[in-house]
Amino acid sequence: MFVYVVMYRTSTLMRLRLLEQNFLYEHLRHYYKTLNPNSNFRAIIGLRLQSICKLHTMALIDTAATMIFTSSSSSSSTARLLLFNNTKLHKFPNTISNFRRSTSLHFGTSSPTSRTIVTHCSSSPASAIQVNNETLATVIDGKRVAKDIREEIAVEISRMKEEIGIVPGLAVILVGDRKDSATYVRNKKKACDSVGINSYEVRLAEDSTEEEVLNHISKFNDDPSVHGILVQLPLPSHMNEQNVLNAVCIEKDVDGFHPLNIGRLAMRGREPLFVPCTPKGCIELLHRYDIPIKGKRAVVIGRSNIVGMPAALLLQREDATVSIVHSRTKNPEEITRQADIIISAVGQPNMVRGSWVKPGAVLIDVGINPVEDPECARGYRLVGDICYEEASKVASAITPVPGGVGPMTIAMLLSNTLLSAKRIHNLR
Ligand SMILES: NC(=O)C1=CN([C@@H]2O[C@H](COP(=O)(O)OP(=O)(O)OC[C@H]3O[C@@H](n4cnc5c(N)ncnc54)[C@H](OP(=O)(O)O)[C@@H]3O)[C@@H](O)[C@H]2O)C=CC1
Ligand SMILES: Nc1nc(=O)c2c([nH]1)NC[C@@H]1CN(c3ccc(C(=O)N[C@@H](CCC(=O)O)C(=O)O)cc3)C=[N+]21
Questions:
Q1: For residue 241, which ligand has an atom nearest its CA?
Q2: Hey, which residues are catalytic here?
Q3: CA of 130 to the centre of ligand 2 (A)
Q4: Which of 150, 160, 205, 297 is the most exposed place for a label (fewest CB within 10 A)?
Q5: What percent of the chain is predicted at pLDDT more than 70?
């Protein structure tokens, strides 16, 4: 009898929108506990013969399974192990028997570069499977999750419109002509359009006065059709950022940058009206990938007001034990190596090397750094703070750049805007 052991990445599971998903999750929860804690895999699922129909369908539908192991008997000494990677699955999407033609390894072969995962198929004895160290971490797909969140928000907005005839509104103030800022603002507008939020935009010249910015904020504060106000940062150096951020009324502070909101975030027993979007997006990703935070050691690299500091506060609220690494920290790698979860928000390309990471850690890369690349149409490409190539071989899960935290920041901005409109209009 064949015993199939299938490994799926959590991101893959999240993509399954079929009945099988529940089935998979049940198995996932059960077998996850049997994983070697240092394993790169987030999911391991044992399926018996009667389940193979389901597996078959899944394999056909979802060609992104990371690995499939089959064993020709339930005895670990004679079991064969067949390994497939994404590419192979894409090449042979049609039948499961194709999988069997792949190179086979024998269970129980040990080599210094492989490690053991103990699996239990429901009624077969536990088998020791050797897994090559080259396997990659689960990719935390922020783009995908952000899309799911936008869909959820769109549903709520149409309900709101139907029930009370109100559409949430977001006002964005952009000062100066920084290219990256202009791109972000454009993306925010597109995202608002996609969910049905009205967006209002003010663009001011680089040499505008602080007073002009304050006047616009004051108008938006008083405008009942505006539920969220965002002043794009950084502001030109002649403006006082504190004055500007303080002027946004806290009920519309969807960025969560007002000192009252940040203060409440830091205090036990107090609740901010809004949580800053990027840190909120990081935590949301952890939640949606079922990554536990409580009791874990977390390290935040960076302590800026907009990302690092609120990220550390949020992790603490989630009952992690938090350390903060900054530019004056000595031997940062000694600290990061202890972390179960790392959130990096530094702005230094590829600073966090594979050797900084504890095997099995979860890595959230906030950094967005342009590096020159003549092969890209725009002459540069974006990389994170974390050296993805190295770290993804050590971590259990990692966010890519682009496509990780960035899209989540925008999704959380929409979510905060909806929250604000609901609160202002007493809608549950
Ligand atoms: N994905 C997203 O949605 C967003 C991405 N970003 C990106 O995140 C990154 C950080 O942004 P932001 O927080 O605004 O940046 P800031 O420049 O405001 O803060 C950077 C932080 O990193 C610390 N730092 C700098 N160099 C080092 C180093 N060598 N070792 C350890 N710590 C260091 C600084 O320490 P110190 O305090 O000692 O100076 C500071 O706390 C950027 O790449 C930015 O583009 C930002 C916002 C949203
Ligand atoms: N008041 C204010 N609030 C902010 O939230 C704020 C800000 N000012 N100033 C600048 C930073 C930066 N930021 C990003 C948002 C989205 C992406 C994003 O969507 N990134 C895409 C890539 C975009 C691209 O290709 O250029 C991704 O990572 O996949 C990135 C960065 C918000 N910030």
A1: 2
A2: 188, 232, 255
A3: 41
A4: 205
A5: 68
Ligand nearest to the CA of 328: 1
Say which amino acid occupies 23: F
pLDDT digits (tens, 9 = 90+) for 55-112: 433 432 233 333 333 333 333 322 222 333 333 333 333 323 323 222 222 222 233 2
pTM beyond cutoff 0.95: no
Q: What is the dihedral of CA 414, 419, 424, 428, to 10 degrees?
A: 140
> Are residues 175 and 239 in contact, defined by beta-carbon separation less than 8 angstroms?
yes
Residues at CB less than 6 angstroms from ligand 2? 183-184, 187, 230-233, 255, 277-278, 368, 382, 401-403, 406-407, 409-410
Q: What is the CATH class of 167-271?
A: alpha beta
Instruction: Find out whether 276 and 268 touch, Cβ atoms under 8 Å.
Output: no
Q: How far apart are CA 131 and CA 381, in angstroms?
A: 33
pLDDT of residue 395: 97
Query: ipTM score of the complex?
Result: 0.99
- In the reported structure, the alpha carbon of residue 184 is separated from the centroid of ligand 2 by a whole-number distance in angstroms of 5
Task: Identify residue 404 by its one-letter amino acid code.
Answer: G
Q: Which amino acid is at 3?
A: V
Element (DSSP H or E) covering residue 130: strand 127-132
277-408 folds as: Rossmann fold (3.40.50)
What residues does each domain of the chain span?
A: 3-135, 167-271, 277-408
Please tell me the distance between residue 311's alpha carbon and the centre of ligand 1 in angstroms: 12
Task: Please report the pLDDT score of residue 159 as a whole number.
Answer: 96
Token pair in block for residue 219: 């108008």
The strand pair at 380-383 and 67-71 is best described as: unpaired
**Closest atom of ligand 1 relative to the 410 alpha carbon:** 3
- pLDDT for 381 equals 95
pLDDT digits (tens, 9 = 90+) for 153-176: 999 999 999 999 999 999 999 999
Protein residues whose CB sits closer than 6 Å to any atom of ligand 1: 278, 301-304, 306-308, 325-329, 332, 345-348, 366-369, 405-406, 409
* Residue length of the chain: 428
Of the ligands numbered here, which is closest to the C-alpha atom of 184? 2
Give the integer Cα–Cα distance in Å for 334 and 44: 31
Q: How far apart are CA 66 and CA 394, in angstroms?
A: 16
The CA 16 to ligand 2 mean position distance, Å, reads 28
What are the tens digits of pLDDT across the range 263-274?
999 999 999 999
Q: Which of 248, 385, 238, 399 is nearest to 304 (CA)?
A: 385
| pLDDT digits 0-9 by tens, 38-58 | 433 333 333 332 343 344 334
- CA–CA separation, 205 and 173 (whole Å): 11
